[in-house]
Write a structure and sequence with these properties.
alpha+beta; Thiol Ester Dehydrase, Chain A; eleven-stranded antiparallel β-sheet; 11 strands
Length: 288
């Protein structure tokens, strides 16, 4: 079980560079040749791909997770949801100061759940990015629950809108190998088929954040002319793992307007199964 005494623990701040070379490597690892990839003109991008934001902040996020989750249970950990709020795009070459807070712990019937709130600032102290990462640890039962849930992004319970667009991309057979190297996430369930099966999975599975990056690109292509500078929020629930060498189809739905932001709902399917649910993107100009 998770120790409720860990609730409210803070980690960092940790200083990390938004590395231009790693941003280009991340773009290649997610098949991204868009305007923030640096691949079109052979030079490092000024703005980095939105989902690259997890790379300079991942160590701080996982420091919180490792502090709360027993080491012997880490192999049963799955990424349940991710919610990213962009005050403005991240700029290649700038330094981020990132801290993490264990925001919520939940005891569930089939396991335990932890939500980490991750905040990134620049030297001036201004917040440029806030993320909510929720992890589920299968089979880790018992214990107490406490803390505040992450902001919601569930689909409307009634009146489901008609699809407004659909886009299909292919996830390559070697995608997990490339993504692990570029992101630094070397969890063995993404690299070792035998180990993944020992953990109760069908085999090697694609990193959740890699799947999210593919969905992000499809959403931006259909709603923002591919411009990553217009992404203000991106949130998903990972409902089933994606397997390498698979198609991923992202379906978009109009979600209305919220101030200067256009809300886009989306979901994704692969091999006939829903793999992303409760997807939400907010499109609008940066705050600064």
């Amino acid at each position: 079980m998770l120790d409720i005494a860990k609730l409210g623990a803070r980690f960092g701040p940790d200083a990390r560079l938004v590395d231009p070379d790693r941003a280009v490597a991340y773009a290649r690892a997610t098949n991204d040749d868009g305007p923030a990839s640096g691949l079109g003109n052979g030079s490092a991008p000024r703005l980095v791909p939105p989902l690259f934001a997890v790379v300079p902040t991942w160590d701080t996020t996982m420091a919180a997770v490792h502090d709360a989750v027993p080491a012997e249970a880490m192999g049963m950990l799955l990424h349940l949801s991710q919610d990213m709020h962009f005050v403005r795009p991240l700029i290649a070459g700038e330094e981020l100061l990132t801290d993490a807070l264990i925001r919520a712990i939940r005891a569930r019937r089939a396991g335990a759940q932890i939500t980490v709130e991750v905040t990134s600032r620049i030297d001036s102290g201004a917040v440029v990015l806030r993320q909510y990462a929720t992890m589920f640890i299968r089979g880790l039962g018992g214990g107490e629950s406490g803390g505040d849930e992450a902001p919601g992004h569930a689909f409307p319970s009634a009146g489901r809108p008609e699809p407004s667009a659909e886009r299909t991309v292919h996830i390559d057979a070697d995608q997990t190998l490339r993504y692990a190297e570029a992101s630094g996430d070397g969890n063995r369930i993404h690299l070792d088929g035998s180990f993944a099966r020992e953990m109760g999975l069908p085999g090697i599975i694609v990193h959740g954040m890699c799947t999210m990056a593919f969905c992000c690109r499809s959403v931006l292509a259909e709603t923002a002319g591919g411009d990553p500078a217009l992404l203000r929020r991106l949130a998903v629930k990972f409902s089933r793992p994606v397997l390498p060498d698979s198609d991923l189809t992202t379906t978009l739905f109009a979600g209305g307007q919220a101030g200067d932001r256009r809300r886009v709902l989306f979901e994704a399917r692969s091999r006939g199964e829903a793999v992303i649910k409760d997807g939400l993107a907010e499109i609008g100009p940066p705050e600064n």
